[in-house]
Amino acid sequence: MNHDQIAAIQKKIGVNADGFWGPVSMAAAKRHLRELMPNHSPWPSTDQRSLTTFYGAAGDESKLINLQFVGLGIEYDGKPVKTIRCHAKVADSLLRILTALSKSPYSHLLKQYAGCFNNRLMRNGSSPSLHARGAAVDFNPGSNGNLQSWPHDASMPFEVMEIFAKEGWLAAGAFWSRDAMHFQATA
Predict the structure, then answer these.
(1) Contact assessment for residue 28 and residue 21, using Cβ atoms and an 8 Å cutoff
(2) Number of other residues whose CB lies within 10 A of the CB of residue 168
(3) Which of 8, 48, 60, 75 lies in disulfide reach of 111, CB 3.0 to 4.6 Å?
(4) What is the pTM of this model?
(5) Helix axes of 158-165 and 23-36: crossing angle, nearest 10 degrees
(6) What gap in Å lies between CA 98 and CA 49, rounded to an integer?
(7) Exposed / middle / buried, residue 63 (Cβ in 10 Å: 0-12, 13-18, 19+)
(8) Per-10-residue mean pLDDT for the chain, 187 residues long?
(9) Domain residue ranges in the chain
């Protein structure tokens, strides 16, 4: 993002809109998104025990459904997507998010869908990814990769993070300062 885009986010989150992102802006962005989230998170904590208790074992495909939708314009590698394979517990919430995105100025991101269920470990880790439970989704990896710093190098709009936050989902870009393509249903 450029200086003016960062300053606009800073203005929205109530910090000095100087266009330079640092610890104060990061903390304010997290606080702003947390304030949009439901008072009592519908999602589990990120420790493996809580995830397994809530979602079941990583890779357990019996917990997945094919979330169907019509007319949202979702594409994967330029091909229309008619269903997303996700955990049954996140399906209704994910559909509300996708519908909100389709009606937003950021609907073009739906053409850059990059997956939900993928039975794999976290990158460079030994624990299962939230994708292995069908409780994470990625958009626009080309501009929001795992090693791209948000908001300096990654371009995921803060307004998209707000849409996910209203459903209680964490936006990796704002909470980890990287991997801005990634959103997960965890507290």
Answers:
(1) no
(2) 20
(3) 75
(4) 0.96
(5) 40
(6) 29
(7) middle
(8) 95 96 97 97 96 97 95 95 97 98 97 96 88 97 93 96 98 96 97
(9) 3-119+126-184
